[in-house]
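dumping this here so i dont lose it
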């Protein structure tokens, strides 16, 4: 009888260890697939189609703008690339010639207007994200809908 009594607790112990390992594996699998995977997926970029990139200004230099008024003598050289929601009509019109499309002209006009209306303090490197958001919102206002996905600053020189 002593062997039967020892065997029962030993089998119970082995069964509890196996059950604990299976439970821990199941919980780990659930956490890895459901919780962590949901946090790592960028929902904003995964739910939109790829955008069209439009470089504003000169192909080499970007935009060169006199800021702070005519008498200030301060200049801003900025390279801006705007990522737009694809538009089949605008793409067909842009492919017809070397002239900038009306969309590109409207983009550049809005960007220059916004940049010239800012004060010197607004070009602080710590305020770069605010500048990008301001440009994005003003361009969206000019087009009348949410056409701009993002604004990228490729170079920035303030003199």
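and the seq i came up w/
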């Amino acid at each position: 009888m002593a062997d039967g009594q020892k065997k029962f607790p030993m089998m119970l112990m082995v069964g509890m260890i196996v059950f604990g390992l299976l439970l821990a594996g199941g919980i780990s699998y659930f956490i890895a697939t459901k919780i962590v995977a949901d946090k790592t997926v960028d929902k904003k970029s995964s739910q939109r189609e790829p955008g069209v990139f439009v470089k504003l200004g000169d192909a080499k230099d970007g935009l060169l703008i006199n800021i702070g008024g005519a008498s200030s003598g301060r200049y801003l050289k900025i390279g801006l690339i705007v990522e737009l929601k694809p538009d089949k009509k605008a793409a067909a019109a842009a492919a017809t010639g070397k002239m900038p499309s009306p969309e590109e002209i409207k983009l550049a006009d809005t960007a220059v207007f916004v940049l010239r209306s800012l004060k010197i303090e607004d070009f602080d490197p710590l305020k770069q994200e605010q500048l990008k958001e301001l440009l994005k919102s003003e361009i969206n206002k000019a087009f009348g809908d949410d056409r701009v996905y993002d604004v990228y600053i490729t170079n920035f020189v303030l003199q």
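The chain has two domains: 2-41, 52-158.
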